[in-house]
Amino acid sequence: MIPPLKLDHLYRMTDEFGLFQFAAHTTPDKNFGYTLDDNVRALIVCSWLLKGEDTKELRSHIGIYFNFIKKCIQKNGTFINYIGFDKLPTKQNGDENLEDCARTNFVGTGGNNE
Fold first, then answer.
1. What is the distance between the alpha carbons of residues 16 and 99, in angstroms, rounded to a whole number?
2. Which of 8, 10, 47, 90 could disulfide-link to 82, CB 3.0 to 4.6 Å?
């Protein structure tokens, strides 16, 4: 028998802005801020879980992750991946190859029509 899924850690890692990128054990590490790819993954998981059990908490978190994704869309249609705890894009966006972020976003926003 499979035990019931517990989402405590996911909820603890999420604030009103989005899912934090890293944790120190069970505490979000705010020094690293947030990433688009992690929030897309959280949106996918919560959306799948909503099919089985529609709860107010799941719907709330779906809204948080979806709003985070919208904040990452640039005027030219591209995306940023890294946002600091101060809610501003970080220098990493210009320093790193964001191809993985683009693939994650493609799947999370409809590239996979399942």
1. 27
2. 90
If you count them, how many residues does the chain have?
114
Question: pTM to 2 decimals?
Answer: 0.84
**Nearby residues of 79 by Cβ (< 8 Å), 6 or more positions away:** 36, 72, 73, 98, 101, 102, 105
Per-residue CA distances from 75 to 28, 61, 71, 79, 80 (Å): 30, 25, 11, 9, 11
pLDDT in tens, 27-54: 999 999 999 999 999 999 999 999 888 8
Give pLDDT tens digits for 38-95. 999 999 999 999 988 889 999 999 999 999 999 998 898 888 999 999 999 999 888 7
What's the rounded Cα separation, in Å, for the pair 73 and 65?
13
